[in-house]
Amino acid sequence: MNCEKFRVMPGRKIKLANCDPSFTGNFKSKEEAQDKLSADIRKLASLQDVLYAQKTYALLLIFQAMDAAGKDGIIKHIMSGINPQGCQVFSFKAPSQEELDHDYLWRHMKALPERGRIGIFNRSYYEEVLIVKVHPEILHGQRIPPDKKNHQDIWKHRYEDINCVERYLARNGTLLLKFFLHISKKEQKARFLERINQPEKNWKFELGDLKERGLWKNYMQAYEDMLNATSSKWAPWYVIPADRKWFARAAVADIISDKLKSLNLRYPEVTAAHKKELLRAKKILEAED
User: Fold this and answer.
1) ∠ CA 253-254-255, rounded to 5°
2) 146-186, pLDDT tens digit by residue?
3) Which residue in 109, 129, 105, 118 sits closest to 231, CA to CA?
4) Most C-beta atoms within 10 A of its C-beta, which of 24, 25, 70, 161?
5) What percent of the chain has pLDDT above 90?
6) Coil, strand or helix: which one is 157?
7) Positive or negative CA dihedral for 132, 256, 239, 224?
């Protein structure tokens, strides 16, 4: 699968209206895509084992999307074969009082993965240039200095801050892959109705979801601005067609496994001194009754 077509290239402006949310590539069936996904999950499990042992790199996966685009399902399916010890997932909701006492990136920096681990942000600091941009009144509760809060370039400054932080992370061994799950308004409606009509899915739906749906155009513009301003060589954005869950899962798994494979990860080399220790330990164990 060639997923580079989904990458937002730095310096090139994209229009989400030109990105087809129902695209399914060369897959002829859902089953074919699931076979590819299963193969990539096995590959990811093997690569993650080496990543964890090597403890040189960390991998940060960021997922952003409109409601019902399938973030939870992608995380659940793709990470199903991963060793839980080497993976951590954070879902960021509205900030707490303690978090509001710090800058907007503070709570996310605390959750960064350590070397050898895969970190997953289910929503992230990008909410600060998405929902906050669509609802600028949120800024008034962030306790930032008035001259900064009301500055006409506040969004430009936030894009710059995020780019600088991500470049710093990349330079220090954290690989960043960012996914925007691109769902159509029509498909979101269908999934909302499914959540309402099926009792076991009622808990997934809140009336506030309709309010945000009513601001669809505003959100699409905010996403476009974000993608064009913050997709970089060191922290690329991928616009993943998400109307077909099975395709979105296969595409994301393919991108992650290819990225890890490109690192040429190796298990740590055992020194001569360590080998001697192993032989000594072997003799001791074999001599036991």
Assistant:
1) 95
2) 877 677 899 999 999 999 999 999 999 999 999 999 999 99
3) 129
4) 70
5) 82
6) helix
7) positive
d(CA 88, CA 154): 31
Q: What's residue 26's pLDDT?
A: 87
Q: How far apart are CA 272 and CA 199, in angstroms?
A: 62
The 10s digit of each residue's pLDDT in 194-211 is: 999 999 999 999 988 999
Q: Report which secondary-structure segment, H or E, holds 6.
A: none
Burial call 8-26: b when 16+ CB within 10 Å, e when fewer: bebeeebeeeebebebbbe
As a whole number of Å, the CA-based R_g of the chain is 22
7 DSSP assignment: B
User: Which SS3 state, helix, strand or coil, does residue 260 take?
Assistant: helix
**Any residues with CB less than 8 A from the CB of 101 and at least 6 apart, and which?**
143
Distances 216 to 23, 97, 133, 162, 220 between C-alpha atoms, Å = 20, 29, 13, 24, 6
Helix (H) or strand (E) holding 182: strand 174-182
SS3 230: helix
Q: What is the DSSP letter of 225?
A: H
DSSP 64: E
Give the residue from 237, 256, 253, 127 showing the smallest Cα distance to 178. Answer: 237
Distance in angstroms (rounded) separating the CA atoms of residues 15 and 180: 13
Helices assigned H by DSSP within the chain: 30-54, 71-78, 97-100, 106-109, 131-134, 146-149, 154-171, 185-197, 208-213, 216-230, 245-261, 272-287
Q: Do the Cβ atoms of 244 and 186 come closer than 8 Å?
A: no
Task: For tokens 């001569």, name the residue.
Answer: 272
Q: Which amino acid is at 48?
A: Q
Residues facing 174 on adjacent strands: 58
